């Protein structure tokens, strides 16, 4: 597969981000509304201005074949319960700042297991790291999605909250490493 990874979010005339207008030198063409993932069109991106979504495109399968997609919000406003759970793992001197959120990650079934999801996740982690005062990148995942949960843990995400059907994870950027937090949690 001839995979290309590229940012896919630009700001439209009214200031709202869209995928439809991307011009990226990696793609060599405009990203347009004919681009599809699993046969469904991808037409909107809801991330904040300046923080793009990111796509994986298989050029060998066709000019509009999106095989992976991630949507992030930076900054992200969590529920009070989520924020308390994420902040509970921070030391007092690390608690000033805000958070990012990986809202959606999807890789086409026939492309899974090829590192595309890892690449997309690392992009989101790096994007959060590049924004001043972001303490952690968060995400919600269904309890049934064991493959994704394995990936998130491998990348250093830590479960901070459990809902009825899902888990809430955080990847911490500040002084304490995720490994030291994991060690502290396993000692409890």
TrEMBL record:
GO terms for molecular function: acyltransferase activity, transferring groups other than amino-acyl groups. PROSITE patterns: GNAT (PS51186). This is N-acetyltransferase domain-containing protein. Coiled coil: none annotated. It comes from Perkinsus chesapeaki. Residues 17-178 form the N-acetyltransferase domain.
